[in-house]
Prior knowledge:
single chain, alpha+beta, six-stranded antiparallel beta sheet, 8 strands, 15% strand
Amino acid sequence: MSDTVQSAGWRTKLSGAALVVSILAVIWFAAAALGTKYGLWGWQFGLGTMTIGWGPPIAFIATGLASIALIVGFIKSPRTQPVILGLAALLIALMLLFRLIGFGAQAASLPPIHDIQTDWDDPVRFSDTLLAQRKSADAMNPVEDDPVIPEAPGIEERWPGMGGRHVSEVQEEAERERVEDGETVPPAYDRPIEPVYFDQSPGEVAAYALRIAENRGWDIFTKPEMGEDVEQTMLEATVTSGWFGFRDDVAVRIRSIEGATRVDMRSISRVGLSDLGVNAKRVSSFLSELQDRADGRLEP
């Protein structure tokens, strides 16, 4: 019989076991996310314990077992079956491991904030109705005009010097290149979080904003007023993440200022300290698309 059909005995069994472990590891991470999304357990357990706590050991075990299986598969003929199974197991395990490493690096490179907006001097404020909805949904993060990063041992360990700082200062710092300990640190965000200006009336710009929000699948909470006579209006929406089902609230303020229409935006997570840059990315991408669609600009 040829190598492709001969049994490699215990080496094939080892490679098969490694593949099963790698597949079970994928199922573990999927269960952590989807279980959180559908309310089987809290996000602290799904993300904190299952993913961040137990996830790395599971990924390392899967990677180690797959590596051993692949090496053993190359020892002698027949090689085809054990090598294919071992290689498949290793690729799956490495995908998980690199994903976790990237997640950790991203978390370490971004500031511990979850509230982003274009104007901290004149904050975008949510409606009382949406704030009540957040409260009824047990949102842990308060909506404040001038939030401060909490001072706690865990925060100081992961982000030294961040405790007690104003979120507005940290956001501004994250938007620009800076020098720390003699080394240049690039901006944490792709672009500055800043307002956009338009020649159209607030009501006309609101129509564009609503269309973009709907196309993105956001749950619209407050529809803005539309029409040429509208001088100021607001769009409010809730955005739910795909895997864990985390919810963030968004407010887009559209008003007439100094002969132009100015659009400000705020996005805040309901739970968690660091948003991994999600809110900043949402604000910048939304305003960038709005600017492109309605021919906006960054100056009045």
